[in-house]
């Protein structure tokens, strides 16, 4: 909803104008609030940093667009059009008003500022490289004959030009070095901006986002991988003073990894499915490690999609049972607990078959 609607609304304006920082911040607040609490007036916890959620799904985020980078990427499209467009009236107007001087062959200042004395002597100050160079070399035109003291500057100038040895009489072409297509796209520019300073890590994004389950369960699985679900452990970190106790086994403190992996009730769900496939599986210590290794076990061809969703629906069943005990004071016995898990699994498997 955020990417398809809330991002689409300001896209047109952002493709024409550079939005002020205050406007972007206000849009981000509205998007952030909508994601965590929807249309409800009651304030809810933001379980993860918004900056983490702006990161690509492949490296640990949710893939929600960063409005600032999106705005910059859309504006960069005009720079590409200006450089690649030919015989365009709007380009001619801008070039006539602001000039076409660039920093060719230099990284800090243009040649006109690096060699101002020679630039003042030049007759063709607005000439292009194609007009001054041929296969015989450079053809420079000055307003007067050069004096002896000008020779050193000419030598320095020609030495600077000689550093670029790939000139030819072929027509120049514009190449976009980001991505593999060779031409500019808004998406490639956004991805480049959004990954600056972010270290790529091995992240089980396909096990989170490429499974055929409800999107809210995808998000829940992502929160589990981040260990951000509101168990007693995380509530205590937020300033609540609770006596941590697992609602299922009532034997240990309620942490994310205990509740969803090592609790004796949850363990029976894992064993139920590994025994079905006669798999000997050593359970990892953390949720993220389970997502990395789960699909390597029990892979059965066409049934792979069904096997991939097992971990998510086990966790979703555990979370529903936990909340039922916490907020409604009702609890299921172990048989009903397993039956609820199987019923949910078969319902989701049916959806996988229908989608296929």
Write down the overall geometry: elongated
Would you report the number of β strands?
2
Helix content: 40-55%
Distance between the termini: 24 Å
**Domain module tally:** 2
What fraction of the residues are assigned to beta strands by DSSP? under 5%
Q: Can you give the mean pLDDT?
A: 84
Q: State the strand order across the main sheet.
A: 1-2
Low-confidence stretches: none
Please tally the helical runs, counting DSSP H or I stretches of 4 or more residues: 20
Over the alpha carbons, how many angstroms does the gyration radius reach?
A: 31 Å
In short:
Pfam families: zf-RVT (PF13966). This protein has 356 residues and is mostly helical.
Set out the fold topology.
Elements: H1 2-6, H2 11-14, H3 21-37, H4 50-53, H5 67-84, H6 89-98, H7 111-114, H8 116-121, H9 129-132, E1 133-134, E2 137-138, H10 151-162, H11 186-194, H12 205-209, H13 215-225, H14 232-237, H15 256-262, H16 264-276, H17 287-293, H18 304-308, H19 310-328, H20 334-355
Antiparallel strand pairs: 1-2
């Amino acid at each position: 909803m955020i990417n398809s609607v809330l991002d689409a609304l300001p896209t047109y304006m952002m493709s024409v104008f550079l939005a002020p920082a205050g406007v972007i911040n206000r849009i981000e607040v509205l998007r952030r609030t909508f994601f965590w609490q929807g249309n409800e007036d009651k304030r809810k916890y933001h379980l993860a940093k918004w900056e983490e959620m702006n990161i690509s799904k492949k490296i640990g985020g949710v893939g929600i667009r960063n409005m600032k980078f999106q705005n910059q990427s859309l504006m960069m499209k005009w720079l590409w059009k200006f450089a690649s467009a030919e015989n365009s009236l709007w380009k001619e107007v801008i070039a006539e008003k602001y000039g076409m001087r660039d920093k060719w062959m230099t990284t800090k200042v243009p040649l006109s500022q690096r060699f101002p004395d020679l630039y003042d002597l030049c007759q063709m100050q607005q000439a292009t490289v194609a007009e001054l160079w041929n296969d015989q070399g450079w053809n420079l035109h000055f307003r007067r004959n050069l004096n002896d003291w000008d020779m050193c500057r000419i030598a320095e100038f020609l030495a600077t030009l000689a550093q670029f040895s790939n000139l030819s009489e072929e027509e120049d072409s514009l190449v976009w070095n980001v991505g593999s297509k060779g031409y500019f796209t808004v998406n490639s520019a956004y991805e480049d901006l959004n990954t600056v300073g972010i270290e790529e890590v091995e992240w089980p994004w396909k096990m989170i986002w490429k499974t055929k389950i409800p999107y809210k369960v995808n998000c829940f699985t992502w929160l589990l991988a981040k260990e951000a679900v509101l168990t007693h452990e995380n509530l205590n970190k937020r300033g609540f003073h609770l006596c941590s106790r697992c609602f299922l086994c009532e034997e240990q403190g309620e942490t994310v990894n205990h509740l969803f992996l090592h609790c004796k009730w949850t363990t029976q769900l894992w064993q139920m499915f590994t025994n079905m496939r006669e798999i000997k599986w050593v359970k990892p210590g953390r949720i993220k490690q389970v997502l990395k290794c789960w699909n390597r076990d029990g892979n059965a061809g066409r049934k792979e999609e069904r096997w991939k969703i097992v971990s998510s629906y086990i966790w979703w069943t555990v979370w529903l049972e936990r909340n039922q005990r916490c907020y409604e004071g009702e609890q299921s016995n172990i048989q009903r607990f397993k039956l609820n898990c199987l019923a949910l699994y078969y319902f989701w498997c049916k959806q996988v078959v229908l989608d296929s």
